[in-house]
Amino acid sequence: MEQVPGAEQYQVFISHRGSDTKNNLASLIYHNLTSYGLSVFLDKEELRTGNSLCPAIRGAISSASVHIVIFSQNYAHSNWCLNELCWILKSSHDCKFLPVFYDVEPFELRYSERGCYADAFQKHQQNGRVPMEVVEEWKEALREAADISGLLFKTKESDYGKFVKEIENIVIEQVKYPLEVATYPVALDQALKDLDAHIQKKGFTKVVGIAGLGGIGKSTLARHIFNSRRSNFSRACYLFNVREKADLTSLQGQLHRDLLGKERVIPNTNIGKTILRISLKGLKILIVFDDVDDGEKIKSVLDMDALEPDSLILITSRDKDILRGSSANTLWYDMKTLKRNHSRELFCRHAFRRLNPPEEYEDLVEDILEICGGLPLCLEVLGEQLAVKLDSKYWKQQLKLSFQGQPLTETDTVINSLKWSYKALEIEQQEMFLDVSCFFVGEDMELSVRVLEGLGYLRDVRNCLESLRRKRLVDFNNDVESQDSIGNAGQDFQISKGKYLILPQRSSKIIMQNQVRELARRIVREDLRTTDKPIRLSCPIDLEKLLQLQVRTVLEFSFTSTYQTIIFYPLSLNVYCHENLV
Question: Is there a contact between 369 and 340 (Cβ–Cβ < 8 Å)?
Fold first, then answer.
């Protein structure tokens, strides 16, 4: 079903012939449902221009989870009503379709040539006013609607109040509420367009992954896709926080409940997988596995290969490798950080509840944008903190402290979210991540690999770096000067595991987001408090915190000017220069 960008979202759509029901049944249904806080679309005559449905009506139909069609005596006389019916039936896969027969019988829809709609179709076909293929499509839609269980209303017999209450009860039970996406959904529509373009370029596949750093907006985009595209599918299910789910049968139970509408006790994953494979056969479904850290969970829960080809499995993860070895063809989309203008808008929405900052905050906002590096979570958290304490002097002082390497308490939530990416790494990957963050950001890729290989890592360094890249903890770029987030690694006196490293600049560079580097710095500072662990120093002043220090191996021995700033170092400092300098 075609999506209508920017269209207002509704929960209920009412299709009716205005001259028959506008001032009675349709209006009563509308007012009763809106009194419950539901978003209801009751179309207006002024929206109807020409013969095709306008974007506002198509968007309302596509977004609604309940469609009420009131078939009255003159319904079929309206091209617009019949076009609405066709569009509704095409988009009602995962929606409730409720036909209301207002002084008409279902058989009159089924046999439109001789029922109350006969006169209407004769007029449609006179002198070729409507193409025959369109007329046949209308008739088929009426026949399909006649076969769906609905409600009968007779004006001479039925009670309006009781009848509307019956409709109200059905709608309240069937309506689907959209997932909460974001307080300020900045640039989400553009991200969805980029994803669609990526899929179109690579070719359709039923398994699509959204990869990116923690806090970059993967889950936000997934929820936006779920809300806007669920009407394209006959069934839909969103599984939250999969990484935290240890009981896989509970995931299978939720899939069965959400996709099939029935509670089912799943004794074990093997049986659950078989039940789902049989039960979902022939269904076009949408499933979102949100925040996945282990692809084996998905493989154990669901046989993706057995799903219908036009189904869609959407996965969000920090790691592209989670489905490696799976027979399912997975297309990965790298979630990008926000552009500067979108970052500014998102931050200002949270901090000032407006599009742009007050004049006295302009410089402060620019500094904060620099720190956040386009991470939505960081922008939102800092924006909300600033909204609580609108004091530019205070915030400038906090930022100044942060740049000196001291923790900025307001960013703890952001850093904690990034720690998920770090904690998910194997021990040796964690060590390499810290080495890279301290010494190799902005450095030549090939030289960095050679030095890391010399440090005795058991894992293949290139594969490990590639794994870190897939987890969005590092990246590689030839145009290093264009990256705002790159530091000047290799320019200071730095020590890793007792190894002193100063590396020359080369062409192909390693890059890293600011917030990821801050995470690494915090971990390193925590290591300084532990005497039995190897330590890393990325700032000369940290030497003052050591009681004992040995530098066992030096690959390139060349003190820079920053060595002059070291005013204290232990007398036990020993330096050994490696003969084979790089």
Answer: yes
Q: What's the distance, Cα to Cα, between the start and end of the chain in Å?
A: 60
Residues 436 and 468 sit within 8 Å (Cβ to Cβ):
yes
What's the Cα-to-Cα distance from 405 to each of 15, 191, 483, 522, rounded to whole Å? 62, 34, 21, 9
- Provide the 3-class DSSP secondary structure of residue 106: helix
Nearest to 333 by CA among 324, 322, 344, 320: 320
All residues at 6 or more sequence positions from 486 whose CB lies less than 8 Å from its CB, including other chains? 441, 442, 480, 509, 511, 512
Amino acid identity, position 190: Q
- 291 closest CA partner among 193, 229, 222, 224: 222
Q: How far apart are CA 248 and CA 440, in angstroms?
A: 40
CB 582 within 8 A of CB 451: yes
DSSP class of residue 447 equals: H
- 3-class secondary structure for 217-285? CHHHHHHHHHHHHHHHCCEEEEECCHHHCCCHHHHHHHHHHHHHCCCCCCCCHHHHHHHHHHHCCCCCE
**Tens-digit pLDDT profile for residues 252-274:** 999 999 898 888 889 999 999 99
Give helix 445-453 / helix 461-470 axis angle, nearest 10°: 120
For the beta carbon of residue 399, count every other beta carbon within 10 angstroms: 18
pLDDT digits (tens, 9 = 90+) for 411-460: 454 565 456 557 767 888 888 998 898 888 878 888 888 888 887 887 78
CA neighbor of 441 nearest in space, from 463, 408, 424, 465: 465
Instruction: State whether the Cα torsion 527-531-534-539 is positive or negative.
Output: positive
HSE-CB at 26 with a 13 A cutoff on CA atoms is 22
pLDDT of residue 406: 41
Q: Strand 285-289's sheet: what is its strand order?
A: 235-239, 285-289, 312-317, 207-211, 330-334
Quick check: 569 pLDDT over 50? Answer: no
Tell me if the pTM is above 0.70.
no
Q: Chain-centre distance of CA 546, in angstroms?
A: 44
